[in-house]
Amino acid sequence: MSNPPFTLSIFVPDGDPDGLRIVDRTNWNGKALVFPRAAWAQPSVANRPELQQTGVYLLLGPREDGEGDRLYIGEGDPIKPRLASHHSGISQKDFWTRAICFVSMGHTLNKAYVLAMLPVVGRSANGRVDWKDPQGRSLKALQNMS
């Protein structure tokens, strides 16, 4: 069965395609914000109303061993204070170079729903080891097989 078609719209508010990008999808009341860490302090990012919403965010940056990206998945209600603390606060995370935030603009997303959707492990986790396919094989095992 094929998925129904949809349209993605990418808005670049600063005119810089490497800066803040706001992604909308037809028939979805949410938005995705994608931006480099260096843009966090710019008003075009820091003052976005979307960041005052409940949401899920991904922080990505290079792995120490050079093998792909390191990923941190977080949630916030709202997400702006969490991102601020990961940028330069008590919970600072030095590794990330870009962020992807998902929020609902229809106010249908709340913290309880977000927590139910996350694998909420409560600790650092290596996705290559902890993420399993339906047969129970880790991503690392699958990568080693190929």
Care to describe what's here?
Helix content is 21%, strand content 27%. With 146 residues, it is of the alpha+beta class. It has one domain (8-145). It has a six-stranded antiparallel β-sheet, sandwiched between helices. The longest helix has 9 residues, at 80-88. The chain is globular. The mean pLDDT is 84.
List keywords for this structure.
globular; 146 residues; alpha+beta; six-stranded antiparallel β-sheet
Portion of residues in helices? Answer: 10-25%
What is Rg?
A: 17 Å
Strand order of the largest sheet: 1-2-3-6-4-5
Main sheet: strands, sense, barrel:
6 strands, antiparallel
Low-confidence stretches: none
Reading the helices and strands in chain order gives EEEHEEHEHHH
Shape call: globular
Distinct helical segment count: 5
In short:
The protein has helices at 43-46, 80-88, 111-117, 127-130, 139-145; strands at 8-11, 21-25, 30-36, 55-62, 69-76, 98-104.
Topology overview:
Blueprint: E1 8-11, E2 21-25, E3 30-36, H1 43-46, E4 55-62, E5 69-76, H2 80-88, E6 98-104, H3 111-117, H4 127-130, H5 139-145
Antiparallel strand pairs: 1-2, 2-3, 3-6, 4-5, 4-6
